[in-house]
Records
---
Amino acid sequence: VIVDAHTHMGVRHGWRHEVRTVLDHADALGVDAVICSHLASIFYSLDEGNRELGEAMRRHPDRLHGYVAVPSGRLGPAAPAAVAHYAERYGMVGVKIYSTPRVPAGADRLLSVAEPAMLPVVETATELGLPILAHATPHECAWLTARVPEARILMAHMGGTAIAHGDWTAAVDTAHDAQGIYLDTATSTVDAGMVEYAVSIVGAHRVIYGSDMPLLEPSVQLARITGADITAEERALILGGNAVRLFGLADAS
Amino acid sequence: VIVDGNAYVGDWPYWRLPAVGEDDLLRTMDAHGIDVALITSTKALLVDALSGNAEVSAMARRHPDRLRPVAVIRAGAAAEAAQSRDTEPTACRLTPALDGTGGLSRVDDVLAHVVDMGVPLFLTARVVMNWGLPRYPVADLAPVVDRVGDLPVVLSGVNRVDFAAAADLAGRPNVYLETSCLQEFDAMPRAVQAFTSDRLLMGTGLLLQQASCGLVKVTDCDSLDPTDRERIAGGTAQRLFRIEDRNG
């Protein structure tokens, strides 16, 4: 089973991503199921994107799973309420949160997920058994798990982002020290040895395949795993076994 | 023929590489079906251009059908550039973000040597697609293109941030693009649209980057037609660097 745990749909700044595009590419690569979040709810509206994604999930119940995206904890009680609502209404299997510390240019820290306002979201997700895909730095992920120790945080891009200064070694080391942190492999960084280092330090059971499609080229992202120097058992865990276990996808897959 | 237009060999201080030296390089190329690689020395990039260039030149002499040396040159270091001629490079590489010069001032004397040698010039925006390593904006590299006449120039290490600036230079027939840092969705068709496959070179960034990633984006790209795929994977590099098909 291959599960892509990091995909998107929606529109942002001229990029339009239809769910059909995501599923067509999944088909081409032999990906059985995807877990998707909607760009409108990551960056704009607590409800608009999540609702649209939920309806798309109903059209593709066997292979399209969803994250409830929360643009900010600063929206108050509506944010954790949305997590509970969309998880119940559409069966979404996780929550997506996103730090934008460099947006807009010139602002040092506009919206970080590592702030008290985000804790009710993380607590609600954890109570509901929903893992959280966090586009965040290793430090921010550690901040969250230190305050909600039972939370399961899937660190998007495993440090391979501008906000994390590309420091995937720090990401892996952070996950080593915090058992609730998992590593998402989706990143434009294709440094040699990156996946192998993650497996050697935290174990394959906490490394999860994601592509970030249709933002990144999915064939490249799959090649990061299929081309890594790891065992077949480790590869199977990363490509799907871990996601099935972490997100409770067994029945759907 | 598969040609890796952007490969590196040598030690690397930023993380532990699975493969480092000459034997590893050839093994990695074999494992991925890469026939020929243009190799740049990481020692030359990071500390010592003269000895690093000499090392890759020696490797290429030992494996003339597999390896082609790229000499690192630095702005303000005309004497180094002059000595690099002795290594008989297939191309030269300017990497202002990483070479300790802080930029491109006093580059004219160095460029004069490259023009005189008549070999293509790599202009490097970034060595690998890692957000933590230094980058030199393509827009700031552009003035170099104006100073080398019709010498072929290969924009190297371009990613989505720099792609628009690179595409702005695509109207010049001597400007090429290598693909090692293009990871975005549909990056290859957009690159073909801007440059045409006659001026696109597949680069993997091995041994610093995972070779399979650089390959699949070209060889498995369904939205490229077979002719474009063949050119990007090797045909363009064969023509540009005068690489013969060892299989005839």
---
Amino acid sequence: MPVFRAFAVALIALAAAREAHASREFIDDAGRKVALPDRIERVYAAGPPASVLVFALAPDMLIGWTRAFRDDEARWVAEKYAKLPELGRLTGRGNTANVEVVLKEKPDVIIDVGSTNATFASLAERVQSQTGIPYVLLDGHLATTPRQVEKVASVLGAEARGRELAAYSSRILDGLREKIAAIPADRRPEVYYARGPQGLVTGLRGSINVEMIELLGAKNVAGGEAGGLANVGLEQVVLWDPAIIVTNDPNFYRDVWTLPVWNSVDAVRGKRVYLSPHLPFGWFDYPPGANRLIGLLWLSDILYPGVFRHDLARDVTEFYRLFYHQAPTPDQVARLLSEPGVAPR
Amino acid sequence: MRLAPARFALGLAVAVAALLALIAWSFTVGRFAVSPHDVARALWFALVGGDSGLARNADAIVLQVRAPRVAAALAVGAALAAAGAAYQNLFKNPLVSPDILGVSAGCALGAGLAVLLSLSITMMQAFAFVGGLAAVGLVVAIGTWIRGRDPILTLVLTGVVVGSLFGAGVALVKYVADPYNQLPAITFWLLGSFTGALPRDLPVTLVPIAAGVALIWLLRWRIDVLALSDDEARTLGIDVRKLRFVVIVAATLVTASAVALAGTVGWVGLLIPHAARLITGAAFARVLPLSLVLGAGFMLAVDTACRTLFATEIPPGVVTAFVGTPVFIALLAVTFRRSA
């Protein structure tokens, strides 16, 4: 009996301790009320978009990445961050994280940025009740990046940093929006997003994969149907005859110039096929996080030549310094921007 | 039901004529409008050389997109049907399909690994092909090593086991794949599609298919004997074990190439030989040519629908399943009600 009583007392004490800690209430984008501890020091980001945001705001709080850095990626961030352990993903598109491994790292909060629909809200709820760690789920649309930044900052208690990055994000988004609004419909190019080694997987209207095309006011040729990713035939691409093709597959970028049939597509004949940079995080599509902000500047110059004339080398240096905490060397930037298919024509 | 040879020849001629008409029709339809006249013109000038005088687009559509797809669909359909027909005799079971020995699972693992390594589409097809051969090679090796009393049952069971092992390998590959990039690529590959039929890669796939089908064709009289018991076959002077091995090699070559090209397209190898047998009786020398024609036609019709109906492609495996299920049930009803 004494054992039982001791156990009960310990349990009550534990509950009291937790109660004392959880002095803040945060309402996440799924409408869930999450009790947060006062001080947060250790954060587990449940997916790549959340990793990017937490890393940008408070890199020392990040307890690990969902996937370990590859060598070529590691060169772009400080070594201590590149060396953080791989913990896996916890929700959504295929869990790979072991809950015990995550728990062992004793995170104070779990942050997930992406879709906030009922599926993801219930997953968040389940992980939270299973682990006892507050789980914050935030909407990950590119257009709402400033708000995401501020929300994550308020969760982490990094408000000053949040204001800085939110202001920067707003400046990028507002600057683009303003000038794009003035561009007449007939000067907005038709764009095809080519995924996969054949370039025949694309994003339909409203899919997170083509968010950048839509946000920049261009026309996604596959936007006739709403949905996610889809397989399309070459014949359909020839029919669409896009003026610009964006891809992130180096195999496709290499093949597109040599396969005769692609040569009948306007974008290929006009040499307007572009390969998005991917170091240390992708500039287009994936991961679908704040890392795409720099991609917006890049793509806007491709879609609307002469309208923005961004100084990309300068912008890359500034963005990487702000979000990834390490200004790349001029040589690194030059090499990144001179990769085949990167430079706007 | 056994048709007279003359009637069978006539029936086959009708089927071939229908297939030719289907090919002609398939060339003239698609998302991009090219008139039948222009299609004929493009094909004619491609054949005799010279400039067709057509818009560059139209030429490319006919010669670079439709021609390889039509060829690929015909070859894959014929290949799967021939392999299925041979296997149904070899395993003495009408419910056997060409991937009974795990070839599809092996192909899938090969393709998945290629995606993980970010290889090109050509390498993906090569990896898939090798994966399929490896899976069946493993099954045959284990079957030979066990040398059970019932070699056929041993093969089938080993096939199930090895197939599920490779299936687990595919699951593992999907698990470690990047969820934004590689996982969709693997999923789309597993769904299957003829979009990968490029003039550049097609010959490489067609050679093993042609070789395998030719082998089955040359053995068509002997494969009939496989439906008998081993002892009966032996009294006819046929080395069943050797024959069985050659048929497995041929069918695997054919199926692995087909799956490497188009992904896992189910039902063709199961359904078409059934239909052929229903029409012409069980004699393999008749089932094979009819299966080749019907398989090619069925696959071409399905792929033509897949590429023309919507702006986005429909996976052919989905269509064959939707068509195959009711047709198969109808075939079962016809077959069993009659024999009852």
